[in-house]
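Q: Can someone sanity-check these two? First one:
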Amino acid sequence: MDPITALLILVCVIVGGLLASLGVHMIPVGGAPAAMGTATGIATGTVQLMFGAALTGLFTASTVATFFETPSPLALVLVALSGAVGAMLMMSFTMLFANMLYVFGAGVVPVSGRVEVDPITKEPQTPYKTPQTDGHGVPNVSYISGWIGAFLGGFGGALMYFVLKNYAFPASLFPELGAVDAEMISAAAAGIAAAGIFVANAILSAYNIGGTIEGFHDPKFKRLPKALISCAVVSALCGLCVIIASWGLMGGGV
């Protein structure tokens, strides 16, 4: 492996990890309190929710990647964008159906518990919030924040997948297999590696959040710089491990 390829892999893995961390901090997660309608967000864990969006993005990216026989800057951008859109659609439908359950099932109004006025629509929030709760459902600002977060996370995950598939674990590493089998192994290795790196960054970000978060307007969002530093270090270590593994598969040659 030449130094330029190794540097490309390392940089893209770090960028993908940072985008994953940023995306995690922007999705509305309420956990158990949200399940009871006493907090905003979706009633699940941060890692599970973002990982679901990332996997949807990876499926979309892997499908689009099959249309490009050779890697190119245009192919990279289109594959990354397809992953971003796939993740955003998954998050959008999740938030939509969560709101339907909150409104028609629990009978609560989607309203923020962290701000008195919605930063985007300027709608008042406090008059509609049940006393002794931290809001309900997925309000407008959280919905838009979730869109953006899923888009960024999906873009980062798809970026890592494309680079790992074409440069770290290309089909040419498996000459003993047929063309179809080699492509399948290449895609599987890249997908597993990208998903693993994404999860590592998502877990770090979840610990940094420490529970629930509404989105970019939440006071906890100010903790983001600490998470970015940690995720940059972890992503760099993961990138080095990928480079070493790829170098080993190449037989230790350049």
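And here is the second, same format, sequence then tokens:
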Amino acid sequence: MASLLVKNADVLVTMDDQRGELAGADLFARDGVIIEVGQGLAHEADEIIDATNCVVTPGLVNTHHHLFQSLLRVVPGGQDALLFGWLQTLYPIFARMGPREIFASAQLGLAELALSGCTLSSDHLYMFPNGARLEDTIEAAKSIGIRFHPTRGSMSIGESKGGLPPDILVENEKDILEDCIRVVDAFHDPSEGAMIRVGLAPCSPFSVSTDLMRETALLARDKKVMLHTHLAENEEDISYSLEHFGCRPGEYAEQLGWLGDDVWHAHCVKLDAGEIDLFARTGTGVAHCPCSNCRLGSGIAPVRAMLDAGIKVGLGVDGSASNDSGHLLLEARQSLLLQRVQNGADAMSAREALAVATRQGAQVLGRPDCGQLVLGKRADLVVWPMDGIEAAGTWDPVAALILSGPFSPKHVFVEGRAIVRDQRLVNVDLKQIIDTNNHLSKLLAEGVA
């Protein structure tokens, strides 16, 4: 039975119901489960970590990503565009990708997340060109050792039918639903402590039909898996919904069965008060992507109002082509800063931002077994060093994680197993990943030129 003992943490942030923080604390885990948290623990263990001069937190949780975009950072033509124009710039590049690019890009994105303290990430893969499949991303996650929630996305309404994507990137709806069944049956693990859980995720209301949205929801409920899509991302999104469906995005989601505690929507920048109340009443979750929303000029999501209403809100780095970075602590900091710009300096505290990045993200993804360092939860944790220049002069090391930095974790554990040790990835060669992605990105750029 593999065991882990973390000793002498300056502060251990439990994220329990009382948001407890323990000074001079230890944590003991066996077989991926936290057995004890306290002071002066004397267990024998297979691995012992000295956390002196460190803060220990639950692993960060990423609730929205497009990992295939890690090959497409800072693409000319899309750098200064709004959402729809940005997508139309990138669609032709997406069409040139295949299994090799999808795997390599996902591996790069997940490596970057692990090195920023992320232990659980979702992914929204909504196009499958040239033989690509969802398992290309699953294999990438296994290579890193991160806990993973891939979603089988889809696009079915191309330009010829009034949709946004080119016809070459859309799929037949019957084929989409059949493959959804295949990947859920093959890879979804509903058990506590699962490393892989599959969700279903039509790309957006402007790239799939009403029938596919409705049928996907029915299938997800039959298979007992979660649902995910983009919703109310910017004003273009709202205008499209009003013009094509005669209602706002929240109302459209309600009509199609896309609300409930098994659903989370990405962005939700333009939810109005009625939609916020609707999400709160139904237990619907939100993936807040502050850096991407800034990058694309989409606006500031009403996160303060969502949290006050009781909505589950987690953080998402979104795709690297609309963020150009994948650091979840920086995402948490950006979320705090935006809420303060919009609502005042007391609108969000550093500890609340950290909770959104950990415990609440796990709740959004339907993982009550993750996101807390308490008895019986999974041993997903991060050891943050506080002896570097970014923390010098710090009075409050927990708040410093959000307000100072940027910090890089010293150690990252998933299911009690190290995936980052001494600030280096344990299971893969990072240089090889970087070299492969640079090579493939260059080939894609040459093809566009």
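A (reply): Looked at the second one. The chain has two domains: 3-58+377-423, 60-364. The chain has a mean pLDDT of 96.
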